Amino acid sequence: MLQYVYYHAYIRGTPKRGPIVITHGQLCKVKPSLLKELNKQINFVDRWVYLSTKALKHIHDRHIFDKNSPDDFKIILDSLTQIIKYPDEVRKNHKSKRGDFLFIKKINNYTYYVSLEVINASNLDVVSASVTGTKYIEKLLLLWSWDPANPPS
């Protein structure tokens, strides 16, 4: 899995905001049913989601140095592709935030999200990932939900 390759080759052991080699690659594909919902927002021609070492370094530094929560970073590293491929919900992010969509999944009774940014019709990039509270998430427009009892508005 790409996130482990990038972490072990470029990020592990680096200082906070330390320089890294910048590279970018295909992480995983968005499921066709989710892509159909995203296409209501923008017309995508490709299902691939990309990850850069810059984004992974941001996620690493935020959890290791800023929040002092290495356990959350490990869960994100282990679950990154699962959150994207099998989210519980997809929500539209605040316009003021980086990233257009939040793919959200409950893991061990905590809510995790991966923020994806539309670069163009064939590029959807991971820009951030974190654990968050439901109060923040509930304020965002629901685009898709796995739970049929909780349909999008």
From TrEMBL:
Domain Phage-Barnase-EndoU-ColicinE5/D-RelE like nuclease: 43-120
Pfam family, one: PBECR3
Top-rank taxon, per record: Bacteria
Protein name: Phage-Barnase-EndoU-ColicinE5/D-RelE like nuclease 3 domain-containing protein
Taxonomic lineage of the native organism: Bacteria, Candidatus Nomuraibacteriota
